[in-house]
Design brief:
The structure is a homodimer of 254-residue chains.
Chain A lengths: L9 H14 L12 H8 L3 H13 L3 E4 L3 E4 L10 H10 L3 H25 L2 H18 L5 H15 L3 H21 L10 H13 L2 H21 L7 H15 L1
Antiparallel strand pairs in A: 1-2
The structure holds a DNA duplex (30 and 30 nucleotides).
Chain lengths: 254, 254
DNA sequence: TCTCGTATCATTAATATGATAAAATCCGCC
DNA sequence: GGCGGATTTTATCATATTAATGATACGAGA
């Protein structure tokens, strides 16, 4: 049985539950993915509901199935990491500095260019949204709004303003990542909250239609966040390569 | 009925068929998505098979369903554009210069950084893969290998060499896009095939461990491809903004 | 006796069918 | 105009049949 209040319907609840179990590494050679009938018993659900859940996870690349062979967890390389559900499950249920680092590298690639595109492509409405987000951040500084929510609103506004549909897809992912990233970095000592001044520099450049300035300001902000994450990956094997990766960006913009 | 030989099993065939129909805009207010029973008749399939197909499309964000309300096509903003299936359906079945442009903008953001990361993070095996791809491109120049396949192999090798799992996810997407992009650009007059020299510059920088050079060389290549696409978007409303977008990148690297 | 191919069988997902439940809208009644 | 049942449609359940696939046993030939 499963607490069905979570998502909404039974199938979705099973999807959530199995999805989390899979990405957190519950199943392996020692503990192979159960066969259909077994899962039905486990969840107290009918085969219909269960199979539909399995199909949804299959569509996201997490599972595979064949007669006589049963259902199995696909190798991680086949997972749709950019699926909002999967990334959410990973970030929320299986903390890994490496994953956060890698996703931030995605943001480091995308968001500066998004800011540049926004500076040329954004209409009045989109620019207003960016400005509004800055206002919210200011309000948050005065304790009149939520700092996290306003920070997220800013990045989402920029991504949307880029008018690139793929970038816009990252809003949900970025929301997850930011929400989680902040929660993590807040545990680090000496971390100040997002600086309104830094964000405003991006916003001003976008509104003024200065793509290069917008890109560079955004790049610096995210690079800073990435450095912060990397600097706390202490002891992780990946550390050295990350700090080199950082250096790699600098000359291209110098 | 549906020709089942396509994918493999009935459910997958229905997924493909419905998926293509949806992304190509078959359904609208005038032609709403049919109800379950109707689709069953249409495909001559059981409700089980059909419902599982619908669930898979729901998992990709294409469909939504509720009792008494039926099944409907979600607004495009909810589609998982980064799902390999969906992007494939879009690029192959619904050509749109705008979409190709937007995806190339994603590549323009990601691949240079991927090249930079590869220059510092790639191991011997990954570097060898990059070199091998260059060799294949050379062979293709002599007519001894497939130009398209070797070009794809190069970009895939770099993405993998970056050791960033999200970048690696783009391999399948890039494969689709390249395969399609080439097919398209080959129709343009005066288009030369991918230059081995340009690609080799990237490869050399990666092998030599020079991230900035790798990034810059890659950026130029993709920018060139983007320019090519944009320059042939003649008459499209998006044209002006794209050419500005191109300009936007230049100062950041100047 | 060994080897190879073939037939049989067992397991498991795939598909089909029909019935019941729950949700949401619509319609008519008060 | 609000309330309650009727209706439509998906959601879930239960059971049966089919198909795919791997394992095993069998048998023919060398």
């Amino acid at each position: 049985m499963i607490s069905r209040s979570l998502g909404q319907n039974l199938t979705n609840s099973i999807v959530q539950d199995l999805g989390v179990a899979i990405v957190t590494g519950t199943y392996s050679d020692q503990n192979p993915f159960p066969v259909e009938a077994q899962l039905c018993r486990q969840y107290g659900a009918s085969r219909t509901a269960l199979r539909e859940a399995v199909k949804m996870l299959t569509a996201k690349g997490l599972l595979g199935a064949r007669p006589r062979q049963g259902t199995w967890v696909q190798p991680e390389s086949k997972w749709n990491l950019l699926d909002p559900d999967i990334l959410g499950w990973l970030l929320e249920r299986k903390f890994s500095p490496a994953l956060l680092t890698e996703f931030t590298e995605v943001r480091l690639a995308i968001e500066p260019l998004a800011a540049a595109l926004a500076a040329t492509a954004a209409g009045p409405a989109e620019k207003a949204a960016v400005r509004d987000a800055i206002e919210r951040m200011r309000a948050a500084e005065r304790g009149e709004d939520d700092p996290l929510a306003s920070d997220i609103a800013f990045h989402v506004a920029v991504l949307r303003a880029s008018k690139n549909r793929f970038y816009a897809q990252l809003t949900e992912l970025t929301t997850s990542a930011l929400r989680f990233s902040i929660r993590t970095t807040n545990r680090y000592k000496g971390v100040k909250l997002a600086s309104v001044a830094d964000h405003k520099r991006v916003a001003d450049a976008i509104v003024a239609g200065r793509p290069a300035a917008a890109a560079e300001a955004m790049r610096r902000m995210i690079q800073e966040a990435l450095d912060l994450i990397v600097s706390h990956e202490a002891g992780t094997p990946a550390r050295r390569r990350r700090s080199i990766a950082r250096r790699a960006r600098t000359p291209a913009a110098a």
